[in-house]
TrEMBL record:
It comes from Coniochaeta ligniaria NRRL 30616. Gene3D superfamilies: 3.40.190.80, Fructose-1,6-Bisphosphatase, subunit A, domain 1 (3.30.540.10). Belongs to the inositol monophosphatase superfamily. Its EC number is 3.1.3.7. It catalyses: adenosine 3',5'-bisphosphate + H2O = AMP + phosphate; adenosine 2',5'-bisphosphate + H2O = AMP + phosphate; 3'-phosphoadenylyl sulfate + H2O = adenosine 5'-phosphosulfate + phosphate. One of its GO terms (biological process) is phosphatidylinositol phosphate biosynthetic process. This is 3'(2'),5'-bisphosphate nucleotidase. Its cofactor is Mg(2+). InterPro entries: DPNP, Inositol_monoP_metal-BS, Inositol_monoP_superfamily, Inositol_monophosphatase-like, Inositol_monophosphatase_CS. One of its GO terms (molecular function) is inositol-1,3,4-trisphosphate 1-phosphatase activity. Keywords: Hydrolase, Magnesium, Metal-binding.
């Protein structure tokens, strides 16, 4: 008998792989078709294209599942030139493995109109009932534009609980043991590109991102941290996304002297899950911002399955059942189980956190 969620895992991995290949093409192109969203954040043809390809694969395999995805298609109905550029990418990005491409992923998207409909169909409200996929087609869009790290993110929640999580990180080193660095090595794909995955209760793995089918996977585990003073934080590059000043105070109180590694996207979760980094800290910068479920669902499961503990700054598990946002959580602390409590205690000693 196959293990629980084996089909979901296979589809998710191949869908993320294909979408990551699309984003890679855009990453190397100087014209990324960037437009500004209503909240002033950027979105590119890479984000739209990756979302279309992932939703196409999910609809082909699991037509009655709900989908919560970050992007929406309305801009593309007003801007035909933008829609055309995305369509060029979507129709020409395929896995080399014919069987994976057609039998598992369902092959090409029918036409441009259908592509926009697919992008628009990730509008579920989310919630605590049933099967819901969460998609962030490019997490770390600002990093993607800067030549930094980014991630293609997909997770399946069942009744509010994350069961399957997959992260495609095209700019991370393939080698799990490579030292953690913020440098994405833009311009060369040599030795780069990794897919992290996890299924609840079945552990976490990493495998190289290739243009064919799935390459062999290895199981991953967090680095055991015995002395916190020897550890370092992995934090967001964007000061507006995480309070870096408070993080520095917390590091000092913990005796941490190494500087934080600043990295965009859920590549942070993948990096600590494979033991390349130690602790992911994301401290709220405002009282009102609600974290989005697609920014954390896959990473939360991958870190927990690699032996870590993930909570918010109040010590609560991330609760993905509240809708499109983590409405009942503030910030994130992801750390090896053995030291998570120590970090949480010091985080709570800092006024205002
Ligand atoms: N004020 C804020 N506080 C925390 N996160 C924010 C934020 N504004 C935007 N973000 C989220 O931060 C994500 C990037 O995470 P990181 O800072 O770890 O790279 C963005 O994802 P997208 O790039 O998918 O839009 C966005 O959803
Ligand atoms: Mg995101
Ligand atoms: Mg995004
Ligand atoms: Mg965004």
């Amino acid at each position: 008998m196959s293990s629980p969620y084996s089909k979901e895992l296979l589809v998710a991995q191949l869908a993320v792989q294909r979408a990551s290949l699309l984003t890679r093409r855009v990453f190397l192109d100087s014209a990324k078709g960037t437009v500004s969203k209503s909240d002033a954040s950027p979105v590119t043809i890479g984000d739209f294209g990756a979302q279309a390809l992932i939703i196409a694969a999910l609809r082909h395999n699991f037509p009655s599942d709900e989908i919560v995805a970050e992007e929406e298609g309305s801009k593309l109905r007003e801007d035909a030139a933008l829609a055309d550029r995305i369509w060029e990418l979507v129709k020409s990005t395929k896995l080399d493995d014919e069987k994976a491409e057609t039998e598992v992923l369902g092959g090409a998207v029918k036409n441009k109109e259908h592509m926009i409909d697919l992008i628009d169909s990730g509008n579920s409200k989310g919630g605590r009932a049933g099967r819901i996929w969460a998609i962030d087609p490019i997490d770390g869009t600002k990093g993607f534009l800067r030549g930094g790290q980014y991630a293609v993110c997909l997770a399946l929640m069942v009744d509010g609980d994350v069961k399957v999580g997959v992260l495609g990180c095209p700019n991370l080193p393939v080698d799990d043991a490579a030292p953690l660095s913020a440098d994405a090595g833009a311009g060369s794909d040599e030795g780069r590109g990794v897919i992290f995955s996890a299924v609840l209760g079945q552990g976490a793995t990493s495998r190289p991102l290739t243009s064919a089918g799935l390459a062999g996977g290895k199981s991953i585990a967090m680095k055991p941290v015995t002395e916190l003073s020897a550890a370092s934080f992995c934090e967001s590059v964007e000061a507006g996304h995480s309070n870096q000043g408070d993080a520095a105070k917390i590091a000092e109180k913990l005796g941490i002297t190494r500087p934080s590694v600043r990295m965009d996207s859920q590549a942070k979760y993948g990096s600590i899950a494979r033991g390349a980094g130690d602790i992911y800290l994301r401290l709220p910068t405002s009282k009102t911002y609600q974290e989005k479920i697609w920014d954390h669902a896959a990473g939360d499961l991958i870190v927990r399955e690699a032996g870590g503990q993930v909570t918010d700054v109040l010590g609560r598990r991330l609760d993905f059942g509240h809708g499109r946002t983590l409405a009942e959580n503030k910030g994130v602390i992801a750390a090896p189980k053995a030291v998570h409590g120590q970090v949480l205690k010091v985080v709570q000693e800092v006024p205002g956190v």
